[in-house]
């Protein structure tokens, strides 16, 4: 019997190896960028940390990418100095931004003078989002052109961890945690309302260590793990870019990659 998926069900795309994943992800990002720039002259994207930054290497030297039109934000950030080894900004700089001609002012890092006050730090980052989004349309939440996420072994995404009270946050755009089970404990993070208002959201997950969790996320969303709660509102669309090792146990139907 054919699987009948609701109109904006997740689109799962699996690649035989991570190089193919990297190339296709770059094409997908280039397409999202082109659509956004054609429509409004800029491209708003939010990046995660973890293993994601190095999966963006297909963007390096890619003539389709119009870096001057990118506005880059962080889905979540560890509350550490910007040059600290744990910083997501540092990781993105190392793996990507130091290798491409993006203007510094287009990359929106946390305010390093506010590391001692989590409330102020998350408020200040929320204000940078308000500055980007609120003037143009009066929407209650920002609409990113693309949000890129990773999935942790416990099913977390961004800094939204299983069983945490932040899973129920409905108002704030940016919140903080001081008890992250994945070190470091202090982080700020986008909330679900922000993630779920994006035009496109894409998870990137590779490796056999992710197989068990990916099955729970996609085949058993009723378990409510944080990554299963990413459900962009129509017309938003969720994608999973994975490798065959990560998808080895998943029953959820795959879709061939197409732009
Ligand atoms: O700050 C972080 O830790 C990341 O933004 C986080 O949300 C990450 O995406 C997941 O933990 C997956 O991490 P891996 O990709 O390293 O498995």
From TrEMBL:
Residues 16-240 form the Glucosamine/galactosamine-6-phosphate isomerase domain. Coiled coil: none annotated. The keyword Hydrolase applies. One of its GO terms (biological process) is pentose-phosphate shunt. InterPro entries: 6-phosphogluconolactonase_DevB (IPR005900), 6PGL (IPR039104), Glc/Gal-6P_isomerase (IPR006148), NagB/RpiA_transferase-like (IPR037171). It catalyses: 6-phospho-D-glucono-1,5-lactone + H2O = 6-phospho-D-gluconate + H(+). Pathway: Carbohydrate degradation; pentose phosphate pathway; D-ribulose 5-phosphate from D-glucose 6-phosphate (oxidative stage): step 2/3. Keywords: Hydrolase. GO terms for molecular function: 6-phosphogluconolactonase activity. Belongs to the glucosamine/galactosamine-6-phosphate isomerase family. 6-phosphogluconolactonase subfamily. Hydrolysis of 6-phosphogluconolactone to 6-phosphogluconate. This is 6-phosphogluconolactonase. It comes from Psilocybe cubensis (Psychedelic mushroom). The lineage of its organism: Eukaryota, Fungi, Dikarya, Basidiomycota, Agaricomycotina.
């Amino acid at each position: 019997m054919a699987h009948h998926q609701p109109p904006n069900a997740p689109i799962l795309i699996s690649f035989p190896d991570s190089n193919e994943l990297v190339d296709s992800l770059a094409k997908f990002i280039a397409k999202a960028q082109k659509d956004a720039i054609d429509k409004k002259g800029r491209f708003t994207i939010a990046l995660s940390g973890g293993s994601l930054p190095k999966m963006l290497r297909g963007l390096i030297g890619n003539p389709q990418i119009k870096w001057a039109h990118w506005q880059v934000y962080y889905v979540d950030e560890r509350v550490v100095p910007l040059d600290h080894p744990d910083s997501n900004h540092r990781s993105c700089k190392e793996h990507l931004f130091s290798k491409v001609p993006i203007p510094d002012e287009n990359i929106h890092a946390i305010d390093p003078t506010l590391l001692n006050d989590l409330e102020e730090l998350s408020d200040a980052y929320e204000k940078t989002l308000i500055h980007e989004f609120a003037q143009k349309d009066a929407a209650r939440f920002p609409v990113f052109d693309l949000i890129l996420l990773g999935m942790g072994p416990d099913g977390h995404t961004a800094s939204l961890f299983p069983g945490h009270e932040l899973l129920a946050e409905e108002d704030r755009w940016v919140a903080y945690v001081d008890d992250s089970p994945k070190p470091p404990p202090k982080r700020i993070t986008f909330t679900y309302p922000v993630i779920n208002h994006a035009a496109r959201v894409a998870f990137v997950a590779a490796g056999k260590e992710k197989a068990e969790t990916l099955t729970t996320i996609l085949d058993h969303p009723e378990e409510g793990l944080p990554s299963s709660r990413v459900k962009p509102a129509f017309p938003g669309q969720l994608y999973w870019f994975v490798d065959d090792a990560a998808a080895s146990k998943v029953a959820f139907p795959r879709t061939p990659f197409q732009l």
